[in-house]
Design a protein that fits this description.
Layout (H helix, E strand, L loop, with lengths): L1 H37 L5 H10 L6 H16 L1
């Protein structure tokens, strides 16, 4: 009878840590993806600067296309 109590005292916190870790990881991943969607790592001005460094002038359509590609990558 005493062995069951000891096993419960050991397994309870261990299972709690495992479940808490998995839950924390899931929540952190969701929040990170949401932040990346709302605040993309590259802006339209940065895209224009990259094109200028290559000696090209991008059209607005090209800039929108690149931004849409970045957003679609963030959804995956």
């Amino acid at each position: 009878m005493g062995g069951g109590v000891i096993a419960g005292l050991v397994l309870g916190p261990v299972l709690g840590l495992i479940v808490g870790g998995l839950l924390g990881f899931y929540i952190a991943t969701k929040m990170f993806k949401k932040q990346m969607r709302e605040n993309p790592p590259i802006t339209e001005d940065q895209i224009r600067a990259m094109y200028a460094q290559m000696g090209r002038k991008p059209s607005e359509q090209q800039i929108r296309q690149i931004m849409n590609m970045m957003k679609s990558q963030g959804k995956k």
